[in-house]
Design a protein that fits this description.
The protein has about 625 residues and is an alpha/beta fold. The protein has 17 helices and 25 strands.
């Protein structure tokens, strides 16, 4: 945290007046604003000394304003201004928009004894010393949440209208310079991506940590439902129905109970998640990666390649479609923030300086203040735990399309392989319990079904014996030098039969241990089909083998229904983007703690079979 400079700790007359100021701009008095249809709560500015939930150095007011879609939806904002702001002084605005800013709690009641602004991003406020650095912080409840009316609309056109209205409102307030930046993680990182896509002049920069890049991908994988196909709907319905605090003002209380008189909101929200067709308008209107085409707001993102919640699916498409300045921290972590630490005090992402870098990013694009420290555009941690600096991501030195051939498998969900394991004396693996608890983007229960010990090796053994098993493998020849697989791998194939297909990539060591480092599933489609895997950044060491598994969905987190059919695969090909680690430019950063957890969870026994292709064609693999 930066040393806090001395500031006046009293609310100025200007701030007192601002408590009565609302609408989409101007400095009109309360009576005029009532005519305009948007008014402040009238509760007056509140300091930390008056309410300990207000961050030190700030003054809290509440405001209401309409969404931009003319639906009648009224949005609620908690505004935190620097305490002691002088009359006519203006500051740039950091804006967060999402479902987690209710006064009672983020995803459920948190036991507060009295109302106050959400502490969701208190780490960011303190880490940047935000108010002393001359910024306002505004938290806006999406429709249906907190103090906002309307039906929740998970990433859809309604929420997109809310984001547009919030940016416009924040830019036009009398205390605002008109320069707005967005900040968030998970869901409120999604709204940051939406903000970028809207191409509003007032939005100068977006920081988005661990977002969902295409809303469909959080619920389905190419037609195959994930376990949260119902759980996510239930979680957000629950958050939207959270009761207000007893001492919230009457207008806030009425808005917080909106769902009680509009139960159709919850029903309609649940219905959307049951649409499995990715091309349905419900999902195409939420395809943020496609909608980013031509956008140019300066963007600072983080993404864990081995994320177990908001996965790196369509990330590369989003970044390719974005045309503006980019910054990023990418690496081998789970669903964490840039400044988070694990229990032993190590940084969860492994890299120092999150708050300094984000503040410098905002200073550059919201204040026009050039950075005093030159940070890399992208700081990337690969699978070895080493960090490198690069100008963009991915950096591709060579794209290859590798012929995998074909084979057959039984879409039985791995039943035959597990039965064979049991017959060989290996204890039958226990069925993974159904996940319980909340399933919003911040709180996803562990659902990944780990591969039972020996499962992959048993499948390979049956394949060598000429049997048709739950899947089949194709192995590369050993690599002659280290080579990184980066970007978004893609498998294309022609399949005959009905059912599901799972695609996995393994890093196989000479001792027969293998790490599954990428996967994806899909419904089998007639004719030629292509499946994008998750974005990755994985270095294969010299002497290692790349193994590709094609078969039934046996592990992972999907709610699939095996068909029992034998699926015949022909002409399979793997497209990879390759990068030579020898060219890396090192930058500061330690091994992220989650990387070792991932390696423990996803290392299996899988001795390499006969190599049929070279990762780097031309004899240089």
């Amino acid at each position: 945290m930066r040393p806090r400079r001395a500031v006046v700790r009293t609310a100025s007359a200007l701030v007192a007046a601002l408590a009565l100021t609302v609408g989409l701009g101007g400095t009109a008095v309360a009576a005029h604003e009532a005519e305009a249809g948007a008014s402040a709560t009238g509760t007056g500015p509140v300091t930390h000394e008056e309410n300990d939930r207000v961050p030190e150095g700030s003054v809290w007011t509440q405001h209401y304003f309409p969404s931009s879609d003319r639906s009648g939806t009224r949005l609620h904002a908690d505004v935190l201004l620097p305490e002691g702001l002088k009359r006519k002084e203006k500051v740039p605005v950091i804006l967060s928009i999402g479902p987690y800013f209710a006064h009672a709690g983020q995803t459920g009641p948190e036991g507060w004894s009295h109302t106050g602004p959400s502490a969701r991003f208190q780490d960011f406020v303190e880490g940047t010393d935000l108010f002393d650095q001359g910024y306002a912080f505004v938290m806006v409840d999406l429709r249906g949440f907190g103090g906002s009316t309307g039906c929740l609309d998970w990433g859809g056109p309604g929420e997109q209208a809310d984001v547009k209205a919030a940016i416009d409102w924040a830019a036009k307030q009398p205390w605002s310079t008109g320069a707005v930046g967005m900040y968030g993680k998970s869901y409120d990182a999604v709204t940051g991506l939406i903000g970028n896509n809207l191409d509003q002049r007032a939005l100068k920069a977006v920081v988005a940590q661990e977002p969902v890049w295409d809303m469909y991908q959080y619920i389905y994988s190419n037609g195959v439902p994930r376990p949260n196909v119902t759980g996510t709907a239930g979680a957000y319905n629950s958050i939207a129905s959270m009761p207000p605090m007893a001492d919230d003002d009457p207008r806030y209380q009425a808005a917080a109970r909106y769902e009680e008189s509009h139960p159709e909101c919850l029903t309609e929200n649940s219905a959307g998640y049951r649409i499995s067709d990715q091309q349905d308008p419900h999902w195409t209107s939420r395809d943020l990666a496609r909608m980013a085409r031509g956008s140019d707001t300066p963007l600072f993102v983080t993404q864990g390649f081995v994320e177990n919640n908001t996965k790196p699916e369509e990330m590369e498409e989003y970044l390719d479609n974005h045309r503006g300045p980019e910054r990023g921290w990418l690496g081998q972590w789970d669903h964490v923030r840039g400044g988070d630490r694990v229990e032993d005090g190590r940084l969860a992402m492994g890299r120092e300086g999150w708050y300094d870098e984000t503040l410098a990013f905002y200073d550059q694009y919201l204040k026009g203040v050039g950075p005093t420290v030159r940070h890399p555009a992208y700081a990337v941690e690969d699978s070895t735990g080493a960090w490198r600096a690069q100008r963009t991501w991915p950096v591709t030195e060579r794209s290859v399309t590798l012929a995998l051939g074909g084979g057959s498998y039984v879409d039985d969900g791995g039943a035959s392989a597990r039965a064979a394991l049991t017959a060989s004396g290996v204890p039958a693996p226990k069925t993974a319990p159904q996940p319980t608890g909340r399933w919003d983007m911040e709180n996803a229960p562990a659902t990944e079904q780990r591969a039972p010990a020996g499962l992959a090796a048993e499948v390979a053994k049956r394949q060598r014996a000429g049997e048709v098993a739950s899947s089949f493998f194709v192995w590369s020849k050993p690599l002659r030098k280290d080579m990184r697989v980066t970007g978004t791998p893609q498998v294309s194939l022609t399949a005959r039969g009905e059912g599901n297909v799972m695609l996995k990539l393994y890093d196989v060591a000479p001792d027969g241990t293998a790490v599954m480092f990428d996967e994806q599933v899909s419904l089998v489609k007639s004719g030629r089909m292509s499946v994008d895997l998750k974005a990755t950044d994985w270095t294969l060491a010299a002497g290692h083998v790349l193994a590709v598994e094609i078969g039934s969905i046996q592990t992972g987190s999907w709610r699939d229904t095996p068909s029992g059919d034998t699926i015949e695969v022909k002409g399979a090909k793997l497209r990879l983007a390759l990068d030579d680690p020898a060219d890396d430019v090192a930058t500061q950063g330690d091994r992220s703690p989650y990387l070792d957890t991932y390696l423990r969870q996803y290392t299996v026994s899988l001795p390499a079979g006969p190599g049929t292709f070279s990762v780097v064609p031309g004899g240089r693999s």
